[in-house]
Amino acid sequence: MCTPTKRAQWREDLQHFRKDHGISKKVLLNCCLVRRIITWASPSPKDSVEDELELSAVRHRPEGLEQLEAQTRFSRKELQILYRGFKNECPSGVVNEETFKDIYSQFFPQGDASTYAHFLFNAFDTDHNGSVSFEDFVMGLSILLRGTVQEKLNWAFNLYDINKDGYITKEEMLDIMKAIYDMMGKCTYPVLKEETPRQHVEVFFQKMDKNKDGVVTIDEFIDCCQNDENIMRSMHLFENVL
Amino acid sequence: MAAGVAAWLPFARAAAIGWMPVANLPMPVAPTEKNKRQDELIILNVSGRRFQTWRNTLDRYPDTLLGSSEKEFFYNEETKEYFFDRDPDVFRSVLNFYRTGKLHYPRYECISSYDEELAFFGIVPEIIGDCCYEEYKDRKRENAERLMDDQEDNKDAKLPNMTFRETMWRAFENPHTSTMALVFYYVTGFFIAVSVITNVVETVPCGSAPNQKEVPCGERYTVAFFCMDTACVMIFTVEYLMRLFAAPSRYRFMRSVMSIIDVVAILPYYIGLVMTDNEDVSGAFVTLRVFRVFRIFKFSRHSQGLRILGYTLKSCASELGFLLFSLTMAIIIFATVMFYAEKGSSSSKFTSIPASFWYTIVTMTTLGYGDMVPKTIAGKIFGSICSLSGVLVIALPVPVIVSNFSRIYHQNQRADKRRAQKVQKARLARIRISKTGSSSAFLHSKRNGLFNEALELTNSTEDEQRLSKSTSLLESQHHHLLHCLEKTTNHEFVDEQYYQQSYLEAGLQNYPSRSPSLSSQDGVTGTCCTRRSKKHHTPLPNASAPAHMQPLTHTHTHPQGLQELSTIHIQPLSTSRSSLNMRVDEPAPLNCQSSQITTAIISIPTPPVTTPEGDAHLPAGPTHQNVVKVSAL
């Protein structure tokens, strides 16, 4: 019972079992003990083979340089530099969420960047397969660094819209806001209070939600941002990165 | 920030676009790369072997030789490469450190040559990865001991101008330094032996008068034995007093093991002298004589091996403790089992569980006296299990103790564990510092940045040049990123101490009459006054302000590091800053040009508040109730 996948699988089975049969916990524990002993005594061979396959499948090679050049707005040299950095940190060619969180947390030593990194990961992982390959990475970066303002705002909207339903609700915004404030950590001036993220969300919604229906749609968002000078200016801030 | 993730900084900065729509404040300007070079390969020629790497790889660690401009000293114009006349094998590890961020120590390398190379390239050995750190430390310790051995052999040269006391102490510690010391050494040894033999012979039954029972010699020749004992004790006392006199640190000497043994050895005699007449305590007196046998421990000064044995036992304290603990557990278990097993049989010697302890111990150590034997079948079964397990339990920790003894014996024992602990603490401290270095680096550069801005305003350029250290581009970009986050959330990063104090302040909001005085942190540079005073300047309400009113908590405008004593309301950044209330007669730019740490101390509306440590503050008039002390250190 070592690998996390086995354990997770077992736990899932357990829950289903309990639900189906409505058995009390005590009885179940006894039963599980027996099951556990059996599983421990005879590890199923098929799992180990699957694990091996999984490991080898994780090694990922990106598409060719020409294709990437065509799909993104980066030059060849820039792609080379990006790939070198990417491969250095993730030799297997894909980033999974844990590594992503680790890397991102290194930039914010004072706070906890893992929640925001989770949202970022979902924003980058456009095909939602649980890992960010080099293509996903470079496409995202292409939008952020070389895209039009429209595309950037689109990307930001996508980031905020956690369940990708086309609307930003207050709860989603609150989650994002809390994640951002978490990155600040504890030692801030002025001292972070509980309601600071909530207040910030209120301000945001007042600004963005024109028809006051409690959600922000993509059009409201883009309109409002285009009318705000600060936001427009900050969109061009990182253009000379790389 | 680790090296590998430096490559991801562009990504982190790009992702910061996600904060922009929620930010309410304008973002700071991004740092520009002054001379943007295309990434290029550089060649490092180390004694003929050419290594090539990207320039960016080396730039990851700007405080080492290869990462800083120091390598320009080694640039060879003709061959367009950097030439180092060093060991190429060790250089491999050094270069891998830049590439992977982990420093490894190869086992085949000599420790001192490795250390030299690391020192040359400006790399601190503490960052050796965990995989190789144990090996590195072990080798280093062995080397240090070897060096100390060599040193000790040289120490015996006689130094001139030693006081009599120091000569005596040296004579005591190293008997072979002079003939007198040697004589003294042998004489004391002889008397220890005599004393021990006397104690032993005292109890031997001598011949007796025909009609009486045998008496021990001690009672037959009382006077002779007493004289012998007195003589020995006199010698020991004199020796102890002389050592005490000669010891460089008397307190430490008195606490050392050997001196305690000396004292315990001679004390029974004196106690016996004092209370020979009293009949009741003569029993206790007899017990005290047992302590005379401790004189044999005085031999450990004369024997190296004994000392090593003692030290081994001390250093194996944990293994011995484990042995004791497991034995106790086993004894209790088996005694209980045997007691209940033998309960049924009549005339059983196993009358209680503690009585069974004796049986268990005798059986587990395979002594088997035979005075208690189980009679029931169950008892015999458990008895055999007991003896088998006894062998196992005792045999387990013994090899550890043995190997320890041999190791110490071969290395001629040092107090290395104590030293290793200190070094371990130092290592962890250094790693912790380097980890917090990244966060404190940001705060530090913020202060520097603001200071530079303030200086610009007051047009004193020479200070600015002095203070603007060249942080690497990577660092400045990272700091810009953190700055953007601050602006997004409208809060600022501060360091731990400051946060705690401002947290306290938040708690004290409701007590207008008190505000503790605080001082700033170390290393804070900042001119508080000029920049903010231009924006909001509230005139200093002087002593006329009644004490119970809003305290003159001068929220110091300097954002970081300096104490910001909040007013009753803690408000977000933009509004709460009132200017530093300085002394009215002090010109504003003065503090700035002093270009040093300025601290704002808040007053308590009580008599002159003590500004905390080290301020050479300019005291405001003592008549001022609410006074601001601005100290320029």
Automatic annotation (TrEMBL), chain A:
Q: Where does this one sit in the cell?
A: Cell membrane; Cytoplasm; Peroxisome
Q: Which CDD domains match?
A: EFh (cd00051)
Annotated keywords: Calcium, Cell membrane, Cytoplasm, Ion channel, Ion transport, Membrane, Metal-binding, Peroxisome, Phosphoprotein, Potassium, Potassium channel, Potassium transport, Repeat, Transport, Voltage-gated channel
Give the matching SUPFAM superfamilies. EF-hand
> Domain of life, per the record?
Eukaryota
Q: How does it sit in the membrane?
A: Peripheral membrane protein
Question: Principal localization?
Answer: membrane
Give the Pfam families listed for this entry.
EF-hand_7 (PF13499), EF-hand_8 (PF13833)
**What PANTHER family does the annotation carry?**
CALCIUM BINDING PROTEINS (PTHR23055), KV CHANNEL-INTERACTING PROTEIN 4 (PTHR23055:SF30)
- Protein name, entry field: Kv channel-interacting protein 4
- Per the UniProt record, the source organism is Amphiprion ocellaris (Clown anemonefish)
* Recorded name of the encoding gene: KCNIP4
